Amino acid sequence: MSELINNSQKRKDLLKHMILQLHEGEAPEEVNARMIELITPFVPTPLLDKVKAKGYLVWTMQDGNMFKSYFIKA
Fold this sequence. Notes:
Blueprint: H1 8-23, H2 28-33, E1 35-40, H3 45-53, E2 56-63, E3 66-73
Antiparallel strand pairs: 1-3, 2-3
């Protein structure tokens, strides 16, 4: 589970992916609309594993007592 929390490499990969989409001509609104944020009081590991298996880039950050999980279609 710890590999999902504050994983800077995943965040860097996601940012590179989003920048590449913008350079390929996609509108910022379209790129941002594909990102989903889920806020929970725990790391929803089974859900994250299923979403990753569907081809999404996934990462989670801890914010106080809450966990913010982000998903974007790769």
